[in-house]
């Protein structure tokens, strides 16, 4: 009985040692490993490589995707990207691979690469007749750039043209949310567009109603909540919101200077009697008697002086105090005697103001602040071939305005082919402008992952992007050279090493290392004289460096 391989590496060493052992035998050994360890990533990846070499793209892609899913599940996004890239190369027509790869790019913050793969997937979905899936993928691209209102509006038009009205309405809602604070007119237009497409959709209506309320558009919010209350009478929240909006608008307290301030002298303030006795708080509307001495204007107890006066006052609603004096004009201050005064104050401001009030001394309830009428503006028309109208005020059950504005909505017909091409072209242009603009460290790590997976061209591409960071240039060029050497492209490897050495000082250890690699690359490429010349240069710098003396003697022999 043959001994079972201890590990994947032991099994791999035995592959191909027997004559006549074909690739089917190698596949069988990989599968035996997977029987014991179904999630063995090396075995899965090895099977994918074998099937890829055999030209079985379906099988190769299947195993690559299994490995990629395992890496993604464990949080190794860069390794997942590298394996999904292999799956994409094995079977470039599989749409799901582009989407999975794009999702991983988003996770690592490589937005440009994510958009590229989303765009490729969207085009493939459209070509396969998967219109809704294609638009959803375009939407993912738009979501990566939420500030681009123009793209989102065109995407909504694409949904609308394909008669996907719910999706179109949701995008119009997103646009309205983005604009309502900075530009209420345009924000309202997009909300109305969404309502025109989905006038009975509770989610659409409620989002708009609450947004209007939060933005201070009480009239518009009241109309939408009225519609919601009629359509969904069992929802108490809509009725509650409607009642709040129907009440007085909250007034914004603005500090004002008192028209007639009461000024006390230092002696008067020092004579104020703040006793320790507990006094029950008066209830609203209850009358009280305040005794004071008119000569000193000090608050005293009753009977403290022969000359007393009484002041009747009433604490009324809204923080107003009104009083009348029972003295005549000859014995009291001219500005206070025989007059009815009102002392208005704000409990929060703590700055009282004395203002005359007409009899009776009752403070009128604050009136709601009238909201300015929303300015009307022309709604951008994504297509000029429209003739249907929608009256927003009538639809939400609000009061009829004096001037009824109508909103044209796009008929659910397909967009012209030229329009779709223009929109797709704009998507592509946006993608091309952003590729390669992300974090250099991530590009470097991804390049290393590609190299480990033998995706040498992809590794070179990523490392070149990472080398744009000056601090990583030398390191990136060194790894790029290793990739070229593995591909057998010695001239490109030597060029990369020379560019790296040009950024290093001659006194540094790295300079000697790069010189040794350049000489070895010349030798591996069959350019013996150039290799001997470089080894000789290194020998003069450091005769004891590694095996430079032996290699130089061998080349010169």
Basic shape: elongated
CATH-wise, what's the superfamily of one domain? Tetratricopeptide repeat domain
The helix content is 40-55%
Rg, alpha carbons = 41 Å
C-alpha end-to-end distance: 53 Å
How many separate helices?
24
What is the CATH domain class of one domain? Mainly Alpha
According to CATH, what is the topology of one domain?
Serine Threonine Protein Phosphatase 5, Tetratricopeptide repeat
Question: Regions with pLDDT < 50 over 5+ consecutive residues?
Answer: 1-21, 274-311, 315-416
Number of strands: 8
Most strands sheet: 6 strands, antiparallel
CATH architecture assignment of one domain: Alpha Horseshoe
Strand order of the largest sheet: 2-1-3-4-5-6
Q: What oligomeric state best describes the polypeptide chains here? A: single chain
Residue fraction in strands: 5-15%
Organism: Candidatus Moduliflexus flocculans
Protein name: Tetratricopeptide repeat protein
Keywords: Repeat, TPR repeat
InterPro entries: CellSynth/LPSAsmb/PSIAsmb, TPR-like_helical_dom_sf, TPR_rpt
Question: Would you mind describing this structure in some detail?
Answer:
With 557 residues, the chain is of the alpha+beta class. Among the domains are: 266-271 and 283-356, no CATH class; 440-556, Serine Threonine Protein Phosphatase 5, Tetratricopeptide repeat, CATH 1.25.40. The protein is built from 24 helices and 8 strands. Strands 2-1-3-4-5-6 form a 6-stranded antiparallel beta sheet, with no helix packed on it. A two-stranded antiparallel sheet has the order 7-8. A hairpin with a 4-residue loop joins strand 3 and strand 4 (320-325). Helix 12 runs antiparallel to helix 13 and helix 13 (218-231) packs antiparallel against helix 14 (236-246). It is elongated and about 100 Å long. The two termini are 53 Å apart. The model is unreliable at 1-21, 274-311 and 315-416 (pLDDT under 50).
């Amino acid at each position: 009985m043959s001994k079972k391989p201890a590990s994947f590496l032991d099994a791999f060493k035995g592959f191909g040692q027997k004559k006549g052992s074909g690739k089917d035998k190698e596949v069988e050994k990989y599968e035996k490993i997977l029987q014991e360890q179904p999630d063995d990533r090396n075995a899965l990846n090895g099977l994918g490589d074998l099937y890829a070499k055999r030209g079985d793209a379906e099988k190769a892609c299947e195993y690559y995707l299994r490995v990629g899913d395992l890496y993604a599940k464990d949080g190794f996004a860069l390794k997942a990207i590298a394996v999904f890239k292999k799956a994409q190369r094995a079977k470039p027509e599989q749409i799901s691979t582009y989407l999975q790869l794009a999702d991983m790019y988003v996770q690592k913050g490589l937005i440009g690469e994510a958009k590229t793969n989303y765009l490729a997937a969207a085009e493939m979905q459209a070509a396969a007749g998967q219109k809704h899936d294609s638009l959803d993928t375009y939407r993912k691209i738009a979501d990566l750039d939420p500030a681009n209102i123009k793209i989102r509006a065109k995407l909504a038009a694409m949904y609308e043209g394909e008669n996907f009205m719910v999706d179109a309405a949701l995008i119009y809602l997103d646009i309205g949310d983005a604009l309502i604070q900075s530009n209420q007119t345009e924000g309202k237009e997009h909300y109305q567009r969404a309502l025109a497409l989905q006038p009975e959709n509770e989610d659409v209506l409620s989002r708009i109603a609450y947004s209007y309320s939060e933005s201070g558009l009480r009239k518009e919010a009241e109309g939408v909540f009225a519609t919601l209350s009629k359509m969904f009478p069992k929802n108490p929240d809509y009725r509650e919101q409607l009642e709040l909006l129907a009440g007085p608008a909250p007034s914004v307290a603005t500090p004002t200077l008192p028209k007639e301030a009461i000024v006390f002298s230092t002696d008067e303030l020092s004579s104020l009697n703040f006793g320790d006795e507990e006094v029950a708080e008066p209830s609203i509307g209850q009358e009280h008697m305040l005794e004071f001495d008119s000569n000193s204007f000090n608050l005293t107890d009753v009977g403290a002086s022969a000359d007393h006066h009484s002041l009747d006052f009433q604490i009324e609603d809204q923080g107003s105090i009104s009083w009348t004096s029972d003295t005549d004009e000859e014995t009291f201050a001219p500005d206070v005697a025989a007059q009815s005064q009102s002392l208005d104050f704000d409990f929060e401001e703590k700055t009282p103001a004395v203002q005359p009030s007409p009899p009776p001394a009752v403070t009128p309830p604050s009136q709601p602040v009238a909201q300015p009428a929303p300015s009307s503006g022309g709604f951008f028309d994504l297509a000029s071939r429209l003739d249907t109208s929608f009256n927003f005020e009538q639809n939400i059950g609000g009061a009829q305005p004096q001037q009824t504005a109508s909103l044209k909505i796009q008929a659910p017909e397909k967009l012209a082919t030229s329009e779709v091409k223009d929109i797709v072209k704009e998507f592509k242009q946006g993608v091309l402008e952003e590729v390669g603009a992300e974090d250099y460290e991530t590009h470097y790590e991804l390049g290393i992952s590609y190299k480990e997976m033998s995706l040498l061209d992809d590794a070179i591409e990523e490392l070149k992007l990472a080398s744009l960071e000056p601090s990583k240039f030398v390191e990136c060029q060194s790894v790029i050279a290793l990739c070229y050497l593995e591909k057998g492209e010695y001239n490109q490897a030597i060029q990369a090493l020379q560019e790296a050495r040009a950024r290093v000082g001659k006194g540094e250890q790295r300079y000697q290392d790069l010189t040794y690699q350049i000489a070895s690359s010349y030798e591996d490429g069959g350019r013996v004289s150039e290799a001997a010349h470089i080894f000789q240069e290194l020998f003069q710098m450091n005769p004891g460096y590694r095996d430079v003396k032996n290699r130089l003697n061998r080349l010169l022999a």
